[in-house]
Amino acid sequence: EVQLVESGGGLVQPGGSLRLSCAASGFTFTNYGMSWVRQVPGKGLEWVSLVNNGGDATRYADSVKGRFTISRDNAKNTLYLQMNSLKSEDTAVYYCTKSPTTWLNESDHWGQGTQVTVSA
Fold first, then answer.
1. Rounded to the nearest 5 degrees, what angle is found at the Cα of 53, between the Cα atoms of 40 and 112?
2. Which candidate, 55, 34, 45, places its Cα nearest to that of 105?
3. Would you say residue 8 has pLDDT above 90?
4. How many DSSP H helices and E strands does the chain contain?
5. What number of CA atoms fall less than 13 Å from residue 116's CA on the CB side?
6. Interior/surface letters 96-116, b for 16+ CB within 10 angstroms, e for the rest
7. Contact 115, 41 (CB under 8 A)
8. I need a labelling partner for 101 at 20 to 30 A (CA). Which of 29, 52, 79, 82 fits?
């Protein structure tokens, strides 16, 4: 059974930083791309970032480019999202998702989400 468990969310002031983690299990982590997707309450889902299975190719939404960094540790089956220069509009529930292939911006499994709140 695929399991994705996010952690690292919380309350941070504007301009601050957070690092999200996602522990993956139940599948061969090194075979699949992974993404972060976020949702603001009352609004739709917004794709944030994608990393390929090897960790050497990444993509970002324009809204986070230059501020967020996605990475993965295949030895630890863990996905990360380093978030710097946070803004109030980054407030959302952040989901770790698994791609059905090595490099495809789609999601076939989702974690339970972790709340990130950016507020003074």
1. 30
2. 34
3. yes
4. 0, 11
5. 33
6. bbbbeeeeeeebebbbebbeb
7. no
8. 82
CA-CA-CA-CA torsion sign (102, 1, 22, 67):
positive
Phi and psi at residue 89, to the nearest 5°: -75, -5
Reading across the β-sheet that carries 78-83, which strands appear in turn? 3-7, 18-25, 78-83, 68-73
The pLDDT value recorded for residue 47 is 96
User: What is the per-residue pLDDT across 32-50, written as a single tens digit (0 to 9) for each?
Assistant: 999 999 999 888 999 999 9
52, 103 in Cβ contact below 8 A?
yes
Copy the structure tokens of residue 89. 């509009």
pLDDT in tens, 59-103: 999 999 999 999 999 999 999 999 999 999 999 999 999 999 989
Q: What angle do CA 14, 20, 22 make, to 5 degrees?
A: 160
Q: What local confidence, expressed as pLDDT, does residue 5 receive?
A: 98
